[in-house]
Amino acid sequence: MKAVALLRYLPVDDPQCLVDVELPMPRAEGHDLLVEVKAVSVNPVDAKVRAPKDKAETTPRVIGYDAAGIVSAVGPDVTLFKPGDEVWYAGDITRTGTNQQYHLVDARIAGRKPASLTFAEAAAMPLTTITAWEAMFDRLGIDPDGADKGQSILLIGGAGGVGSIAIQLARRAGLTVIATASRPDTISWVRDLGASHVVNHREDLVAQVRGLGFRHVDHIAIFNDMRHWAACVELIRPQGGIVAIDDTDLPMPMGGMKTKAASLHWEFMFARPMHQTPDMIEQHRLLNRVAGLVDAGEIRTTLTRTLSPINAATMREAHAAVESGRMIGKIVVEGF
């Protein structure tokens, strides 16, 4: 089968950073689905895994952490799906990635693809949807169905992949959404998705948020790096919560968090499959629930750009777009 893989960890402009290979057909065992991959998306995690380092692989390494496709076969322990079912999922960072014609994924972290979406539109969403949902509803404890209506949330990185779905989920939960964006196109994007207010992350966040009439905000989600940590500590309400998705080497003073009795949460959407947690099926349920919201017209795809076909040259182009730091929404590559 066809696949896109790496053998060395090289800059994205090096044609050897991702290469076309032929690999043996995988076989579904245990809880596995064997999925015929129709479309994949590229996330910052793909670029981080592929980033230059002094290391080489002895066999081709396939990465990729979003896919939509059709179930080709199921393992003996699978009860959730059958061959022919259309699925979407983000996979498991400890296993072979999605950038191959046929891919194995644990059925407990896959969901039914929204019937109203194409494979490309669906592939844009799983990783970012799981991340946004877990960050706000599992980590910060916000009720997804409106019990916390009227509370405020500051979303840092509003126009990116995670921010684009988080805005929609937060608005559906009844929250007042303050999203960061700095360019006319990203400002328009986050407003169109439902942000109540937009602040410029290149300027003084504290002054801007307080200029909107908020002394503090109830929740903060940091969907990029931690450069705004001091502003977040200043803005979070006493006993409020901050969730972050990116590890950092930047200083994170905790004195202000302590005196506010505020909480810090880390979200890593691969934690459940990586550690085989007893509740890993929650990602299956989450994806099924969001599929229903999509099909009901309450949530829309965050796809903004589609490339084809799935090969090394096209994947390098997608990686370069993600690494540019100027992405709006998500980029998808479809069709082998």
From TrEMBL:
This is Zinc-type alcohol dehydrogenase-like protein. The keyword NADP applies. Transmembrane segments: none annotated. One of its GO terms (molecular function) is zinc ion binding. Its main location: cytoplasm. InterPro entries: ADH-like_N, ADH_Zn_typ-1, ER, GroES-like_sf, NAD(P)-bd_dom_sf, Quin_OxRdtase/zeta-crystal_CS, Zinc-ADH_QOR/CCCR. Gene3D superfamilies: Medium-chain alcohol dehydrogenases, catalytic domain, NAD(P)-binding Rossmann-like Domain. Residues 12-333 form the Enoyl reductase (ER) domain. Belongs to the zinc-containing alcohol dehydrogenase family. Quinone oxidoreductase subfamily. Homotetramer. Keywords: Cytoplasm, Metal-binding, NADP, Oxidoreductase, RNA-binding, Zinc. It is found in: Cytoplasm. The lineage of its organism: Bacteria, Pseudomonadati, Pseudomonadota, Alphaproteobacteria, Rhodobacterales. Signal peptide: none annotated. Coiled coil: none annotated. The keyword RNA-binding applies. GO terms for cellular component: cytoplasm.
